[in-house]
Write a structure and sequence with these properties.
Number of strands: 15
Oligomer: single chain
Radius of gyration: 22 Å
CATH class of the largest domain: Alpha Beta
Largest sheet: 7 strands, mixed
CATH topology of the largest domain: Pseudouridine synthase
Shape: elongated
Order of helices and strands: EEEHEHEEEHEEHEEEHEEE
Number of domains: 2
CATH architecture of the largest domain: 2-Layer Sandwich
Number of helices: 5
């Protein structure tokens, strides 16, 4: 549609999920890592009363929930208890990814092993829940919004919520509302996408990085992979080099002697 062979996305959505998917075109595909590492905001619905094999509605119900009970035998937690449990997720923590996930174990995707019936226990990873808020609660449904670091599984949050409440739980709906400063409200629905749709400049996905304005001479140096005598970012940190006409030239690491390019978007000429 956009007459380019280079197209990439920046984070798969689960089949039952909806929401924002950032696509990168042409040389901007080189920016994928910088988009993926940004925080994401989700609107989620969890169902209390039963855990599942996948931690969501696509899996089979487990015969033994966190409380050893299922369905009508579960005592509904109070709203205060749900709010307290959700608040307990705030901040940095260790999270166990779902067995049915794209994480690799012994060189193979975890979900492939799980689908074969193999027991899969993935190592816990460091994640951060920046914000989490209860929006609606009417047992067994819990609707909440959360902003989380890259690599956080909202399915796992639903699973762990059920464990903390002693009811078991799984995710039934998920919508990704934002990635960094990009919002789903600004996105174009897939069925409305055509070659005439506006394409944002690469700078739109790099708002979380310090900006360093460079001259044409400095842009040329960066294009050749050379260090540019430009400052503006914290030593050892990343910064985006922007040319005089607002074009992204490179993303580099700030050092005492200047900006060392890590990823170059603009070819030297």
């Amino acid at each position: 549609m956009f007459r380019t062979k280079a197209v990439g996305h920046t984070g798969t959505l689960d089949p039952f999920a909806t929401g924002l998917l950032v696509m990168l075109l042409g040389r901007a595909t080189r920016l994928a890592r910088f988009v993926e590492q940004q925080s994401k905001t989700y609107l989620a619905t969890a169902r209390l009363g039963a855990a599942t094999t996948t931690d969501d509605l696509t899996g089979d119900k487990l015969g033994d929930s966190a409380s050893g009970r299922l369905g009508d035998s579960v005592v509904p937690p109070s709203r205060a208890a749900v709010e307290q449990a959700l608040a307990g997720f705030l901040g940095p923590q260790r999270q166990r990814p779902p067995a049915f996930s794209a994480k690799r174990t012994d060189g193979e995707r975890s979900y492939r092993k799980a689908r074969r019936g193999e027991a899969v226990t993935l190592a816990e990873v460091d994640v951060v829940v920046h914000a989490i808020e209860l929006l609606e609660y009417g047992f067994p449904e819990v609707r909440f919004r959360c902003t989380v670091s890259a690599g956080t599984y909202v399915r796992a949050l639903a699973r762990d919520l059920g464990e903390r409440l002693g009811t078991g739980a799984h995710l039934t709906a998920l919508r990704r509302e934002a990635i960094g400063t990009l919002s789903v409200e600004e996105a174009i629905p897939l069925d409305a996408l055509d070659a005439g749709c506006p394409v944002l400049p690469p700078l739109a996905v790099l708002g979380h990085l310090p900006r360093v304005d460079v001259t044409e001479e400095q842009a040329r140096s960066l294009g050749f992979g050379r260090v540019a005598d430009a400052g503006g970012g914290a030593s050892g940190g990343l910064a985006v080099a922007v040319g005089p006409d607002q074009r992204v030239v490179a993303i580099g690491t700030c050092r005492e002697d200047g900006l060392h390019p890590n990823v170059v978007l603009e070819p030297a000429s």
